[in-house]
Amino acid sequence: MRQRQRRWERPHPAFLAVFVLLLVLFYIPISGVLVRGFFPDSRFDPGLFFDTITSTYSLRIIGFTFFQAILSTLFSLLLGIPGAFLLSVYSFPGKRLVRALSGVPFVLPPILVVLGFVIFFGNSGLLNTMLMGILDLSRPPLRILYSLKAIILAHGFYNFPIALRLVSSLWQQLPPSQEWAAQTLGARKFRLFLTITLPQLMPAVLAASALIFMFCFTSFAVILVLGGGPEFTTIEVEIYRLAKTSLDIPAAGALSTAALTITLGLMFLYIKLQNRLAFQQELTVEKIRARTFNRPGKKGLAAIFVYLAAMFLIVAGPILGVLVRSLQKPVSRAGEILFTFEWYRRIFVDTGGQFSRIAFPAVRNSLLIGAAAAAVALVIGTAVSYVTVRYRFRMSSLIDTLSMAPMSVSSVILGLGYFLLLRSLPNLRSGAIIMIVAAHSIIAYPFVVRTVSSVLKKLSPNLLYAAMLLGAPPRRVFRTVELPVLLPSLAAAAVFAFAISLGEINATLLFSSSTTTIPLAIYRMIGSYNFFGACALGTFLIIVCTCVFALFDYAGGSDY
Amino acid sequence: MELKTAGLKRSFSDFTFEADIHALEGEFVCLLGPSGCGKTTALQLIAGILAPDRGEIYLGDRAITDLPPWERGIGLVFQDYALFPHMTVHENIAYGLKQQGATAQKIRDRVDELLSLVRLPGYQHRKPHQLSGGEKQRVALARAAAPSPSLLLLDEPLSALDARLRIQLRREIREIQRRIGLTTLYVTHDQEEALSLSDRIIMLRNGRVEQTGTPQDLYNSPRNSQVAQFIGNSNLLPAEKEKTEGKFFFFRPEDTTCSIQASDRADLFSVQLTVRSIEYVGSHYIVEGVDNGTTLRAHLGEEKLAGIPGHLPGTKCWFNVPRGKMKVLPE
Which of A12, A240, A384, A420 counts the most CB atoms within 10 A of its CB? Predict the structure, then answer.
């Protein structure tokens, strides 16, 4: 019997190297964390694990984690679904603005959201200052920060676009003929929504809720800074505190194991939901008919105006706040303020002052780490995409699972893994920057996989066969056909990975002691109340992220 | 060049392909069959995209079974066109010529020549996304033909196009094939396409050859009821009643006539059925008669239909066919 699979159809052995890399960069640090939970004194002792996770303190933290995630999810839906309604039903002039604004939170690293909130909603923030001026008050009327309110508000800001986009995209695909049919059968507006529209939107609502819940459940920077204390501590923040402050590594390991179990369970639920959504879409999108949008009436206009205003306040306010503050400098104790580019000068020119001593290397480090991490993530992500999309062999499903697992592990736990690795290998300390690159690559590569494999799936194998039959051997087919077709998405993926690395704080904060990145510098400046300098760095980050995502849109936009 | 296979076999988990394909030098052969009959497998085996479990493939005198696709010298036109999206029309057609190491001038001349052959002169600098479906298929044909392959394969090339364009393009494909005298294997599930295009048809079913022959052979003398049913319209009547060897009487609706009175002519075979529907399709009427489980159709012109008084659904009616036009077929 002749060999069924031809030589050029089998995966290149170089892919194996990538999986070894994945093993070293992800599985070794992570198993370190899990082992530490069960072997507190290099002896197997599950007692400590169970004691830790069943203690009242831990249970309270786990409970609060769920509580805030549920509240945040509901709040995000509350912000997002009305927007989805407006976008799906009406045509109005500001529609593109709503879409564009709703994309902004996606782009922002969490530390910037935190900074924006402190600047805008803080006790001496812009909103309070304005309200005090308008209403002639002597004390700030809004006290939001360092409370549950701040956490929920920030999570809502960060996540409502998910609800808005998922729900409105499904809504716009619902065939209008069903509504007409219901109307001819006598259903009125509200009944129509309740009986026809809402049931069909449920898959999107549920999927959005699951996704938002996951994000809020593993949220770190927002809780760490805006929560402001042990009263509002979640699992992730507690892991950080145990490792960094109390140095109780076994407890951190035990809590990490518990967190991992919970998130894996939630992930499983989400995948189930997602499958249902896909099924539902198949049912409803048989024939997409262009939905006709209504022109809003008086009530509609009012709703649109209110929504736009609220969105502007919540989304644009914090960002504009950061921009404004970055150009300001207090000149006297009385609060007199000067407009200046001084902070930017100190970022890019090492002026020797305290701010410059932190900011200047932070920018350099971040750009360096971002570039390196993007390169590594691109290699790993592309290889994983190829192996999962292109080749089927005996162990494929195992390889698929192993290579996508890092997606379900929170970056705080990954950071803990690297923290432990660095402690056990003291001579690696000088190489901390390499460790940051490694951690960032692991955090970023699943996004590369998502971008690249979606294009790879769409790329018809016939394209490659066509080239082969025209006389080109596989290597040349790759160079002349496959690579050029994939290039835009590879570029988009690299740029995306770069942006993720640039904004990453969770893992970096946990294990990096000597190397500062931009988010770390911002975090420290918030801690020492240098908001103006933090805003200058934040603005720099906003500008880079905006450019990067504009590039991403541009590169990903040319879709074959 | 002549294409021949010997003992070709390829098994899948739920399907086995075991058929031999033969096309003479310059012949236009259609691989015809319903979906899942193995026609695409045959094409992929010949193109080298799939490896056979056993058997040999010969192109001319050369065994090409173990050659990779890029050394076979076979042109393939895909159903989804598979034009390189990042290249212009010129670059697409030039791709195969470049692999052969042709000079820039030669490439340009050949591309221009082929573009006028497929009636798209001046399209050199367009990109695939600027082309219509029909234009894409023409470019795909030009690209496959450009390196002067010894065999041209077409995999349902017209199935993504609308009916009118399909008829126009299939005439063009046939004309181009005649002009360059290329041995061509054309895969289709459309029997009308196969009848109108082929020198010879190979009909496949369940991975095996059901019948081979000219379009006339297959239409007039189908080997069994499966072929009869697949090609053209057919009336099939279980034959047990007449104590015949075969299992089915087969005749064409266009040879069938209808009458209210039973005919006493000995050369006519007649069945009395109840008229279920009379359908007007422009060139003729389709009269459908049923009787517990049997369905027969007659294609009648206006004047013949007028000869039957009170032709309403529900009427009892005799369906007649000259015995000479009727065949007994095995299942």
Answer: A384
Same fold, A20-29+327-560 and A55-304: yes
User: Which residue, among B16, B84, B100, would best test binding to A if mutated, counting the most A CBs under 10 Å from its CB?
Assistant: B84
The fold adopted by the segment(s) A20-29+327-560 is MetI-like fold (1.10.3720)
Judge residue B243's burial from the number of C-beta atoms within 10 Å of its C-beta, 0-12 exposed, 13-18 middle, 19 or more buried: exposed
Nearest to A471 by CA among B103, B148, B41, B128: B148
Q: Distance (Å, rounded) from C-alpha A17 to C-alpha B179?
A: 53
User: How do beta strands B74-77 and B151-155 pair?
Assistant: parallel
CB contact at 8 A, A503 and A431: no
Neighbours of A357 (CB within 10 A): 14
- Residue A128: in which H helix or E strand, if any? helix A126-135
A473-504 pLDDT, tens per residue?
988 998 999 999 888 889 888 988 998 999 99
A171 Cβ contact partners less than 8 Å away, ≥ 6 residues apart: A84, A85, A87, A88, A197, A201, A204
Give the three-state DSSP class for A436: helix
Please report, for chain A, the start and end positions of each structural domain, with discontinuous segments joined by +: 20-29+327-560, 55-304
A412-460 pLDDT tens trace: 999 999 888 888 777 665 567 888 999 999 999 988 988 888 888 888 8
Each residue of B13-43: pLDDT tens digit?
Answer: 888 999 999 999 999 999 999 888 888 899 9
**What superfamily would CATH give domain A55-304?**
MetI-like (1.10.3720.10)
Global pTM value: 0.81
Answer yes or no: do A467 and B84 touch at CB < 8 A: yes
The Cα B73–Cα B67 span in angstroms is 10
Q: B111 and B90 in contact (C-beta within 8 Å)?
A: yes
Residue with tokens 């507190």: A40
Contacts of B48 (CB under 8 A, 6+ apart): A6, A468, A469, B64, B67, B68, B69, B72, B74
The fourth-level CATH superfamily of domain B3-229 is P-loop containing nucleotide triphosphate hydrolases (3.40.50.300)
The residue behind tokens 């479990």 is B53
User: CB B85 to CB A476 under 8 A?
Assistant: no
Instruction: With beta carbons under 8 A apart, name residues in chain B contacting A476.
Output: 99
Q: A1 and chain B: CB distance < 8 Å anywhere?
A: yes
H/E stretch holding B154 reads strand B151-155
Q: Which of B70, B73, B76 sits opposite A473 (nearest CB)?
A: B70
Determine whether the interchain pair A1/B54 forms a contact, defined as Cβ–Cβ distance below 8 Å: yes
CA A107 to chain centroid = 8
Q: Which of A249, A254, A258 is nearest to A38 (CA)?
A: A254
Which positions in chain A touch B71 (Cβ < 8 Å)? Answer: 471
The number of CA neighbours under 13 Å toward the Cβ of B122 is 0
Contacts of B105 (CB under 8 A, 6+ apart): none
**In the CATH hierarchy, which fold is given to the domain comprising B235-329?**
OB fold (Dihydrolipoamide Acetyltransferase, E2P) (2.40.50)
B34-59: burial string, b at 16+ Cβ within 10 Å, e else: eeebbbbbbbbbbbbbbbbbebebbb
Q: What is the pLDDT of residues B68-90, one digit of tens each?
A: 999 999 999 998 889 999 899 99
> Residue B140 burial by CB count (10 A; 0-12/13-18/19+): exposed, middle or buried?
buried
Cβ within 8 Å, pair A6-B147: no
Residue pair B162/B195 in contact by the 8 Å Cβ criterion: no
Domains of chain B by residue range: 3-229, 235-329
* Whether complex ipTM tops 0.90: no
Contact A469 B74 (CB under 8 A): yes
Question: In the beta sheet, which residues pair with residue B56?
Answer: B6
In this structure, what token pair is assigned to residue B40? 């695409």
